[in-house]
């Protein structure tokens, strides 16, 4: 597999008609179509840990459309580890693109009922000493620590505001850890009704890090995880038209829509904005054909 180098794209149009306001975008989406962006960083420390402990098989959880599932499959193949995905719900008649891709990357799938999934019940045969467990979505401290490299690998010191999408909050926790004094990290949750998310993020921070500047802006989830409206699709198409940057409808479409609105409603003049494009473009394969122009 050929991984590409991420880069910072300067001065993108935020499409909110605020004169002079632009943002730079950290293009983690270009790293790889499958192990896109943040998943690559989130998995790094887990894989290192598993190899160090001489584990042979990675076990993780996810839904049928999970970017984490497909990224884990690819990362395991790259590191000669076996992997098993415990998938939420009965085996579907028609497999999602995500599941097909993960299988192609060598992942074995175990489908469990939604009730068992909620309790994260692990089939006993997957509990041997050879198995290494990664939480759903890669949530956890090793995941957040892997993310801190994002702000170190690129010159991000002069940004005052850094925006990211929030699923489990692991990426945001990592960005908070790596942030410098004077930098504000703003997260846009893509799930609805997640009152616990702030605590989930704080659970990955030490007390000093909890005092850093960060906030969550909870109005741009479009009714829930993987839900979308024509308004979101139109925004994504217009955004591509103007900036030539593809977005996905689950995470980064909502993120960029949110930043466009939020920076319009609040005074950002003189601020230096960086938006983390965390990838996830493979998710668009589950949209009806023709919805997106790219
Ligand atoms: C998984 C994912 C996220 C969310 O990351 P968390 O660490 O779970 O908050 C954001 N963007 C994309 C594209 C993702 O695939």
Summarize the structure.
This protein is of the alpha/beta class and 294 residues long. 34% of the residues lie in helices and 19% in strands. It has ten helices and ten strands.
Question: What class do helices, strands and sheet pairing give?
Answer: alpha/beta
Helix content: 25-40%
Cross-sheet strand order for the largest sheet: 1-2-10-7-8-9
The 3D shape can be described as globular
Quick one: CATH class of the largest domain? Alpha Beta
What small molecules accompany the polymer chains? pyridoxal-5'-phosphate
Runs in which pLDDT lies below 50 for 5 or more consecutive residues are none
Number of domains: 2
Provide the β-strand percentage band: 15-25%
H/E series, N to C? EEHEHEHEHEHEHEHHEHHE
Q: For the terminal residues, how far apart are their CA atoms?
A: 24 Å
Determine the number of helices (DSSP H or I, runs of at least 4 residues): 10
CATH topology of the largest domain: Rossmann fold
CATH architectural group of the largest domain: 3-Layer(aba) Sandwich
Mean pLDDT, all residues: 95
Strand segment tally: 10
Biggest sheet architecture: 6 strands, mixed
Write up what this structure looks like.
There is one protein chain. The chain has 294 residues and is α/β, with parallel strands linked by helices. The chain has 2 domains: 7-34 and 147-286, Rossmann fold; 39-138, Rossmann fold. 34% of the residues lie in helices and 19% in strands. A 6-stranded mixed sheet has the order 1-2-10-7-8-9, sandwiched between helices. Helix 3 links the parallel strand 4 (82-88) and strand 5. Helix 1 crosses helix 5 (141-153). Bound molecules: pyridoxal-5'-phosphate (PLP).
């Amino acid at each position: 597999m050929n991984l590409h180098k991420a880069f910072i794209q300067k001065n993108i149009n935020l499409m909110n008609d605020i004169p002079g306001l632009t943002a730079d975008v950290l293009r983690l989406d270009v790293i790889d179509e499958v192990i896109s962006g943040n998943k690559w960083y989130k998995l790094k420390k887990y894989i290192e840990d598993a190899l160090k402990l001489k584990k042979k098989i990675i076990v993780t959880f996810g839904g049928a459309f999970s970017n984490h599932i497909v990224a884990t499959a690819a990362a395991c193949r790259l590191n000669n580890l076996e992997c098993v995905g415990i998938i939420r719900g009965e085996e579907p008649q028609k497999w999602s693109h995500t599941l097909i891709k993960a299988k192609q990357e060598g992942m074995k799938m175990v489908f469990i009922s939604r009730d068992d999934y909620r309790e994260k019940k692990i089939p006993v045969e997957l509990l041997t000493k050879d198995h290494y467990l990664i939480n759903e979505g890669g949530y956890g401290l090793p995941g957040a620590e892997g993310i801190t490299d994002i702000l170190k690998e690129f010159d991000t010191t002069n940004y005052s505001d850094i925006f990211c999408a929030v699923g489990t909050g692991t990426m945001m926790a990592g960005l908070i850890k790596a942030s410098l004094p004077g930098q504000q990290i703003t997260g846009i949750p893509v799930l609805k009704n997640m009152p616990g998310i702030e605590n989930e993020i704080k659970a990955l921070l030490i007390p000093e890090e909890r005092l850093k500047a960060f906030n969550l802006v909870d109005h741009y989830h479009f009714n829930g995880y993987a839900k979308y409206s024509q308004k979101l699709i139109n925004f994504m198409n217009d955004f591509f038209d103007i900036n030539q940057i593809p977005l996905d409808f689950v995470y980064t479409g909502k993120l960029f829509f949110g930043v466009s609105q939020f920076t319009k409603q609040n005074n950002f003049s003189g601020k230096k904005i960086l938006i983390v494009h965390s990838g996830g473009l493979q998710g668009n394969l589950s949209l009806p054909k023709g919805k997106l122009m790219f």
